[in-house]
Amino acid sequence: MNKIKRALAALAGCWRKSRVSIIIVVLLAFGVIIAGLHDVGIVMGILAAAVILVEMTRRWRRTRNFIIMFAASFLGMIFLSFLDIEVVKPLVYFIGGEGAVSRTVFDVINQVISLIILFFGLAGLLTGFFGTIITGTVNLVTLVKRRKNEVKT
User: Fold this and answer.
1) Are 132 and 66 contacting, i.e. CB atoms less than 8 angstroms apart?
2) Of 153 and 84, which is predicted with more confidence?
3) What pLDDT, in 10s, does the model give residues 55-113?
């Protein structure tokens, strides 16, 4: 019973901490809907995805994690593009014929995959890149401070 109370308290604490992030993501999502997928809408969509990723990686303190995130985002973008162009489209053409490729259902699936690549792929690259720089700098500064304190004593 005590474990359940601690788990619920931790969940409530996460909710309080991430409430601002949720509000920002919702506002940016409404901005994308209003602005459409033009220049401003795409930037707002990438920012919304970046806020989600930053919230997920907020507790990361190791530079290696952000490097892995950067590489995984890069490879994931390539893999999803390959999957969309080289696997899904020929499979739909093979199963449904030439008319199936131009149908609305395939267009919706194609657009969803493209938006995932655009928003979360680019946001993952940016979060991984800047997270690597920030955690690397912080780790370097703490290492220099430790060495300085060791030299003094």
Assistant:
1) yes
2) 84
3) 888 888 899 999 999 999 999 999 999 988 888 888 877 887 777 767 777 788 888 88
DSSP tag of 102? T
C-alpha dist (Å) from residue 125 to 11, 86, 105, 148: 28, 23, 29, 34
| Total Cβ atoms within 10 A of residue 14 | 11
> What does the longest C-alpha to C-alpha distance in the chain come to?
78
For residues 82 and 88, give the distance between their C-alpha atoms in angstroms, rounded to a whole number. Answer: 9
User: Considering the entire predicted model, what is its pTM?
Assistant: 0.77
Helix axes 89-96, 104-116, angle to 10 degrees: 170
